[in-house]
Amino acid sequence: MHMDDDVISALEAIDPSRADRFADGSIHPLMKRLRQEAPVHYCASSEHGPFWSITRHADIREIELQPERFSSSYQRGGVSLIQPPGVESLVTFIQMDPPDHGPRRQALVPAFSAQEMTRLSENIRNRTSDLLDQLPRGKTFDWVSDVSVRLTTDMLATLFDFPWEDRHLLPEWTDWIVSLERIQKEPQGRMEKMGEMAAYFLRLWQERASTPEAPDLLSRMIHSGALGHMDAPEFLGNMATLVVGGNDTTRNTMSGLAIAFDQWPEEREKLYADTGLIITAVPEAIRWQSPAAHMRRTVTEDTEFRGKTFKAGDSVVMWYISGNRDEAVFENPDRFIADRKNARDHIAFGYGIHRCLGARLAELQLRILLEEMASRKVIVRRVGPVVREAHPFLTNVLSVPVELH
Ligand code: HEM
User: How far is the CA of 137 from the centre of ligand 1 (A)?
Assistant: First the structure.
């Protein structure tokens, strides 16, 4: 029994990062309590050290807009509460502040332009419709491994122009990078897998460096001014960001969609009857799932915030999973509502200078999945329990057993 299992327990005793709550969903009522009673909350002791929690939508946005005061830098501990012991934080632009961050981000912006999305969309549609056509009917399968993982892995392989026959390595690597269990119990094995990923990507780097620039993400990086001279640790840090950022987040939203449609079939019916609603259903699925539960910042100078004092060096955790269910912004926030008018106000992609670079691509994949499901009137029925990972950084869905009708 943990100290804060009881609803009447003292606010000070609450540790919002406790992993088991992310597996059983009890994180949501806890976050609601914090939003109401302690929207800027201090946890003095946790597995990840002491930290502040920011749980209201407006407060998260305010912090995101002050990168000088709330740093993302890997040199100060980076953007995740989870920091494997003895492992350096990854050198990558998501974990950099101005002036280092901007030019690196800019080098990759063209890869996510509207024209690029148009170029990629035919490929995404073909893959998605083939996959849906091949799913078994009237037979149990796992929506996570057979739909979410396959679609996002193929997308990532396309984006990197990654050797097609080896693409199964991509989700294997991300699982090794993010799995809390492996971080804690198999640190050596994890390092070996990361070494394997490093060697593979360095080989691709050498190949692409010696051939003319191509539209794939790897080639763009290598031939760009700001990223062309990366040393090996930064190159690998950026690859890890892109592989995890591009894979797990979109994957978990696809899994969330299957869960939401099963839980609220009337929302699925609404959408299938009027596919114009896909425009709100996509951001709504992202809001409801909140694939990145949080991002962390380090305070650079003593700062007053909503009557509390943050000291230089303090950890501040912005809980997107909570801001996205803030009743001050979203009515009936725990429910998936396909035609929610303000779904786009979610902060699942962050806000400010680090706002997700891949947002357009994630939305495109989800839009096409919904369009293709709607055109086939696919009915996904859950036939077993949803399994979620106990993970306070990524809201990983491990399994959703389903049948199609
Ligand atoms: C639903 C899917 C996704 C969600 C919820 C998501 C969420 C986020 C969040 C919360 C941030 C950081 C914001 C911050 O620190 O303030 C971020 C940054 C980033 N994301 Fe995503 N992401 C998604 C999909 C993708 C995809 C598909 C890619 C690429 C293939 C991608 C690449 C990145 C990159 C490169 C950054 C760093 C941007 C920067 O620091 O300037 N993400 N994402």
Answer: 34
Distance 178 CA to ligand 1 centre (A): 15
Instruction: Determine the angle formed by the axes of helices 232-263 and 187-209, rounding to 10 degrees.
Output: 110
Query: Taking a C-beta distance cutoff of 8 angstroms, is the pair 34, 41 a contact?
Result: yes
d(CA 225, CA 222): 8
Domains present along the chain, CATH in parentheses? 11-404 (1.10.630.10)
Instruction: For ligand 1, pick from 66, 216, 239, 249 the residue to mutate: most ligand atoms within 8 Å of CB.
Output: 249
For the record, the structure tokens of 197 come out as 């990923």
Q: Encode pLDDT of 284-343 as tens digits.
A: 999 999 999 999 999 999 999 999 999 999 999 999 999 999 999 999 999 999 999 999
Q: What pLDDT score was predicted for residue 3?
A: 46
- Prediction pTM value: 0.95
Question: Any residues with Cβ below 6 Å from ligand 1, and which?
Answer: 64, 72, 79, 93-94, 105, 159, 241-242, 245-246, 249-250, 253, 286, 291-292, 295, 348-350, 352, 354-358, 361-362
* Res 1 pLDDT > 80: no
Q: Which atom of ligand 1 is nearest to the CA of 96?
A: 40
Give the number of other Cβ atoms within 10 Å of residue 271's Cβ: 21
In terms of residues, how long is the chain?
A: 405
Geometric angle at alpha carbon 366, from 144 and 161, rounded to 5°: 80
Using CA positions, which residue lies closest to atom 37 of ligand 1?
A: 94
Q: Ligand 1 centroid to 292 CA: how many Å?
A: 9
Q: Which of 83-97, 145-159, 304-318, 384-398 has the lowest mean pLDDT?
A: 83-97
Instruction: Please state, in angstroms and rounded to a whole number, the distance separating the CA atoms of residues 133 and 135.
Output: 6
